[in-house]
Design a protein that fits this description.
The protein is an alpha+beta fold and 198 residues long. Helix content is 21%, strand content 26%. Strands 1, 2, 3, 4, 5, 6 and 7 form a 7-stranded antiparallel beta sheet that branches.
Length: 198
């Protein structure tokens, strides 16, 4: 995996968009694309599942609504970057007192680090393309919660899902599971238990 963007089992510093593990953990790759708002085929070259490993600071949490709000903005993504940049952000529309309450709550909430709602990040092997229109590259997703971390935090590179939809952990953990449609429940359940607690 030397040519891949991160190393399985390592801890990396990342910011940017995150969401609950429930929406990205052990689903078929095409389902993850639809859920999170990646274009069809974005995960076809494989991807990593990253898990948040440190508590958040309130001021670093941007509330972006759900993945129905592509990029954490109101309205549908547009055909060019300039007009897409003018779409208003969900975060900016939230009452400041309510926003502060939610940010404080998330910063002290253990469930962001453990369980089905722990914060995770999908890192595709296929990079972002500067040549794709926002509406094509990041269409409206399926509705799971999303937040943007404005600073880098520690994430465990917990699993790699290859182009064949086979998920694997480091050898010491020893889990391999197919995430293809109709794949074995037992292997996927074992992988999910690991992702909830790693």
């Amino acid at each position: 995996m030397a040519s891949l963007p991160v190393e399985l089992g390592s801890t990396v510093q990342r910011g940017g968009m995150v969401g609950p593990l429930l929406w990205s953990g052990v689903r078929p790759p095409a389902n993850v694309e639809k859920s999170l708002g990646f274009h069809a085929g974005r995960l076809s070259q494989g991807y990593f599942i990253l898990l948040l490993k440190e508590q958040l600071k309130p001021g670093d949490i941007q509330m972006d609504g759900t993945t129905l709000r592509s990029g954490g903005k109101f309205g549908l993504p547009t055909g060019d970057k300039a007009s897409d940049a003018t779409r208003p952000r969900v975060h900016d529309s939230i009452d400041p007192a309510m926003l502060a309450h939610h940010q404080k709550g998330m910063s002290g909430d253990a469930t962001v680090l453990r369980g089905i709602n722990r914060l995770s990040k999908i890192l595709p092997v296929m990079p972002h393309s500067d040549n794709m229109a926002p509406r094509d590259q990041y269409p409206m997703g399926g509705g799971g919660g999303q937040w943007t971390l404005k600073a880098a935090y520690a994430f465990l590179v917990a699993a790699y899902v290859g182009p064949d939809a086979i998920a694997q952990t480091i050898p010491q953990v020893g889990i391999t599971a197919s995430l293809a449609e109709g794949a074995s429940y037992d292997a996927r359940a074992r992988l999910m238990r690991y992702l909830e607690t790693a």
